[in-house]
Design a protein that fits this description.
By secondary structure, the protein is α/β, with parallel strands linked by helices. It contains six helices and 14 strands. Helix 1 packs across helix 2 (34-43). The protein is globular, with a radius of gyration of 17 Å. Belongs to the ribose 5-phosphate isomerase family.
């Protein structure tokens, strides 16, 4: 199977899981990226079961609306039973690196409200130690250089994310992203807390303090369901 086929497989599996476990009339939290897009396309087939969704990015909002799914502002809802999103890396505890698409700050906000975080990914995203995928850090533009020095002191290589034309990549929040290469993240909770405490950091793309509750992992043999609560 190609990677696109694996993403479509797990996107459909996530839609099946939501349809089986989330009550009718609920609002669903939806992440950003190519795997999340596969989930959106799959859940659109049963959109009449739900009131709508809370989106983690402008791109996701556009895709949801293209399917006729109403998008709610997070400030206007009282509860969110589930959040579904992909990951760039996920370890055996359910901690993740997210942010390849640049929407990780909003993803972290929406996922923090949800009762259950379902990560959807293909098997290549599961790792023993995170850090092969560059760790993104969203920063206020004026703090870029200062934060870069702090990240370099962690033995990482900080690189400003740029667009194809060489200009700084700007997030939906109007900030910049530093991608940190060369890390070996053996204590993701501690590193998340450390980086988040630096003035000028909006957030780091580590989802460890609030990791995934469940992972649907697509493989050549089908979709594996990993419940991290049962592994404790």
């Amino acid at each position: 199977m190609t990677q696109d086929e694996l993403k479509q497989l797990v996107g459909q599996a996530a839609a099946d899981y939501v349809n089986a476990n989330v009550p009718e009339g609920a609002i669903i939290g939806v992440g950003t990226g190519s795997t999340a897009n596969c989930f959106i396309d799959a859940i659109a087939k049963t959109k009449s079961r739900y009131c709508g969704a809370v989106s983690s990015s402008l791109a996701t909002t556009a895709r949801l609306k293209s399917h006729g799914i109403e998008v709610f502002d997070l400030n206007d809802i009282k509860s969110l039973s589930i959040y579904v999103d992909g990951a760039d890396e996920i370890d055996h505890s359910g901690a993740m690196i997210k942010g390849g698409g640049g929407a990780f700050t909003r993803e972290k906000i929406v996922s923090s409200v949800a009762d259950v975080f379902v990560c959807i990914a293909d098997a290549s995203k599961r790792v023993d130690v995170m850090g092969t995928f560059a760790l993104p850090v969203e920063v206020l533009p004026m703090a870029r250089t200062a934060i870069g020095r702090k990240l370099a002191a962690l033995d990482g290589v900080p690189v400003l994310r740029v667009t194809k034309d060489g200009m700084p990549f700007i997030t939906d929040n109007g900030n910049e992203i530093i991608d940190v290469k060369g890390l070996s993240i053996t204590d993701p909770r501690a590193l998340e807390a450390q980086i988040n405490a630096w003035p000028g950091v909006v957030t780091v793309g580590l989802f460890a303090a609030r990791g995934a509750n469940l992972c649907l992992l697509s493989t050549e043999q089908g979709v594996e369901c990993i419940d991290y609560a049962q592994q404790v």
